[in-house]
Design a protein that fits this description.
Elements (H helix, E strand, L loop, with lengths): L6 H8 L2 H12 L14 E3 L4 E4 L5 E3 L13 H14 L5 H8 L4 H16 L10 E9 L4 E10 L2 E9 L3 H8 L5 E4 L14 E2 L7 H17 L8 H18 L5 H10 L11
Parallel strand pairs: 4-7, 7-8
Antiparallel strand pairs: 1-2, 2-3, 4-5, 5-6
Helix pairs in contact: 3-4, 3-5, 4-5
Bound molecules: zinc ion (ZN).
Length: about 280
């Protein structure tokens, strides 16, 4: 896949409806067409979008069953919206998306914005972190417990985080990070993390910049929620940490255009968004 860095790159790869449709088809059926009902792999092409299974006669389209289902907007417009969101990350807004895509109605732009954001985060809580992951442990006085923080990073940016309270660091790593991942921790040479098995030891680092950033955010969040009053209630501390984690992850936008598109064909269509601002 071509690296999309500039608007000109984008226009040359995804400037027409045919290009977008071809790309989406490959994303949806990387090994060729598959009937969603009987898994048969041969179909008649009824028009440029519609397929009819040669075995069970079921009709489907490339976008059926994905977040693009029933859309009235051209795919070029959707792709442009995904490009806008992935290149602006947290700074993207529905108004910005409307300007960028030329969608006439703000309501439609807002809906598209919500759908793309939804696709971006749909699998975050269920998926373990992977790739390069910073791991740190720190005592947080206001909740009277130690907290483990893991941060998955890609190209020096935070992709996803996991936080746990009062848990052995090795157990935390095994529960929240996929085996085979590369772990960056200050604890490798100390006594914090003793395991090496199943994980790749990342290069030694004296500062965990991303963990520090999450830690600062977490402390600020807890201070606000607890009005700067110390607690010793473990259940309350745990539920606050869960809330922090969900909110933090929801704000992170995948800045990889292709990965964001990939997520969009994996997400089931959402029908109740329109009346649910
Ligand atoms: Zn079939």
């Amino acid at each position: 896949m071509k690296n999309i860095e500039t608007l000109a790159d984008f226009e040359s790869e995804f400037g027409t409806e045919e290009q977008c449709l071809r790309f989406l088809t490959n994303l949806r059926w990387p090994n060729g067409y598959r009937c969603p009902r009987c898994r048969h792999d041969e179909a008649w092409l009824l028009n440029e979008k519609k397929y009819k299974c040669k075995k069970c006669k079921y009709q489907t389209t490339v976008t059926a069953g994905t977040i693009f289902q029933d859309t009235h907007l051209p795919l070029t417009c959707w792709f442009r919206a995904v490009w806008y969101i992935s290149s602006n990350a947290e700074k993207a807004t529905a108004i910005g998306l409307q300007k960028e895509t030329g969608i006439k109605s703000y309501k439609t732009a807002f809906l598209i914005f919500k759908k793309i954001r939804y696709a971006n985060t749909f699998d975050i809580s269920s998926k373990p972190l992977q790739g390069t992951v910073e791991v740190g442990q720190t005592f947080i006085p206001i909740v009277s417990y130690c907290v483990n923080i893991a941060v998955e990073t890609r190209k020096k940016k935070i992709k996803c985080i996991a936080v746990s309270l009062n848990e052995d660091c090795n157990t935390f790593v095994m529960n929240s990070i996929k085996k085979g991942s590369s772990i960056l921790s200050k604890g490798w040479n100390g006594n914090q993390i003793l395991f090496v098995k199943d994980y790749v030891r990342g290069p030694y680092t004296s500062r965990l910049l991303h963990v520090d950033r999450v830690h600062k955010n977490l402390v600020r969040f807890l201070n606000q929620k607890l009005d700067n009053k110390k607690i010793r209630d473990k259940d309350l501390a745990e539920s606050l940490i869960r809330e922090f984690c969900q909110k933090f992850n929801a704000k992170i936008v995948d800045t990889d255009f292709y990965e964001l598109l990939q997520k969009m064909v994996q997400v089931k269509p959402i029908t109740d968004f329109s009346d649910n601002k």
